[in-house]
Every structure is written in structure tokens, then in C-alpha cells.
Amino acid sequence: MEEDNSNSSITVDTAKSKDAVWLLKCPLVVSKSWQAAATSADSPQLSKVIVSVDPLHSDESSALKFTMEMGGNDTGNVPKSYSLNMFQDFVPMCVFSETPQGRASMEGKVEHKFDMTPHTRNMEEYRKMCRERTNKSMIKNRQIQVIDNDRGVNMRPMPGMIGLIASSSKDKKKAAPVKGPEVKRTRRDRGELEDIMFKLFERQPNWTLKQLVQETDQPAQFLKEILNELCVYNKRGTNQGTYELKPEYKKSVEDTGAE
């Protein structure tokens, strides 16, 4: 009981609670590039945000245009320029941090929320990177493991377990488990799941959420997050209620299929 009381009385430092911060949802390749640059000894500039203002409509929120240039010279096939799309409406959020010693502090309140898309002039680089990632995911790395005890002693049923094994197998045949909504699904790695999604859309252009949940065996909410980045949702027309790839990703999938 004493331990529970101590854990419930954690003090949060709120000295920065009024500071304004930006929340940026970035692609996985950008996040990995930043992490690699941050751990280097040179400590280079990660990126630069450029804000453009239309002087004729400076009072309107649409007058602001945000772009971002990646820092560093060696970024591989990662696009160098991105457009930052600002959300007008979002749930109020705050940013918290925690030190290795367990001290929590509030870093500020989210003032603007953005997502990133490759700039038009870097779209070809991004398509090339998507093709390389898709081709790499299609390579199967199989391993062979040699069993030291090749006499199969450890594979034999123990005395007294033969009846249990037989009865349990009969029970399984009588009442086969039905996978329902209560079954918990384990999340895959985000990059791996994106590759699987690209393969599925190579097979057919339109999918419903229910079909994609069955194909990927992933939680519906987690799958929606990926779909919002990669796809558009058809609200009307012949494909109503289905998802299809955004034009920039659809072009990448078509190029991969042609190759």
C-alpha cells in the first residue's frame, strides 16, 4: 500500500505550461533520419522551417504557407523538401516529458498541428524510395536451425499425457474458436505494415476497412491511422465506403508493378 501511495503522488513541473509548441506528424524515414543525425558527434541542424505570407490576405489563416528543408548533406533517397499542412481544428493537447530519473515536466501547449507531404519537386525521389522499400520487403530471409537432439526425445509425449492430448484435440474439433471483436491483435512495425498495405493495393485498387483488418490482422484504430496517411476515403460513387491510395502513392505502386 505504501508503494502505491508513493507512485500516485508524482509531482509535475508546470513552469513551461504556457509555452507554445508545434506538433508535427512526420514519415518514418524522416524520423529515422533525425534520430541518426541527433546521435552524431557533429550535431548538425536537423531541418529548417520556412514560413511564407501572402501580403494581400495576411489576415486569413490560408495566407500562411509552411515548408521544411531537411538539414545535412547525406540523407540518401529521403526527400529534401516537404510541405507542412496545418490543421485548423484539433483537440487541445499538451506535451510532457520524463527524465531517466522519473521526473515529469510539462513542455508546453500545442498551438499548431501539422502533417508532412513531400514537395512536388521531390516526388520522384520519394517514389524511388517507396519502390526500393517495397522490393526489399518482398525478399524472404529464411533460416535453417539444426536441432542438437536429433533422436526426437524431447518431441515425444510424456507418460500419462497421451489421453490428455487426444481429449484436447477432440474438444478443439467440437468447439472451434471463433475470432471475434474481443480478440486482441498485436501491432506490427509501422514500416512493415505500410509495405503490406502497398502489396494489397497492388492486388486490387479499393478496400473496405473490414477487409483490410482481416487481411492484415491489425487493430482497426491503428489501421485507420495508416490509411489516413496513405489513402483517400470514398464517401460517394461506385466505390463508396472504400479506401484507395492517394495519387502520389498510387503512381509508386503502378511503377513497382510495371517493373
Automatic annotation (TrEMBL):
Residues 187-250 form the TFIIF beta subunit HTH domain. Its main location: nucleus. It is found in: Nucleus. CDD domains: TFIIF_beta (cd07980). It holds the Pfam family TFIIF_beta_N. Coiled coil: none annotated. One of its GO terms (cellular component) is transcription factor TFIIF complex. It comes from the Eukaryota. InterPro entries: TFIIF_beta, TFIIF_beta_HTH, TFIIF_beta_N, TFIIF_interaction, WH-like_DNA-bd_sf, WH_DNA-bd_sf. One of its GO terms (molecular function) is DNA binding. Residues 20-128 form the TFIIF beta subunit N-terminal domain. SUPFAM superfamilies: Rap30/74 interaction domains (SSF50916), Winged helix' DNA-binding domain (SSF46785). GO terms for biological process: transcription initiation at RNA polymerase II promoter. Keywords: DNA-binding, Nucleus, Transcription, Transcription regulation. Belongs to the TFIIF beta subunit family. This is Transcription initiation factor IIF subunit beta. It comes from Nicotiana tabacum.
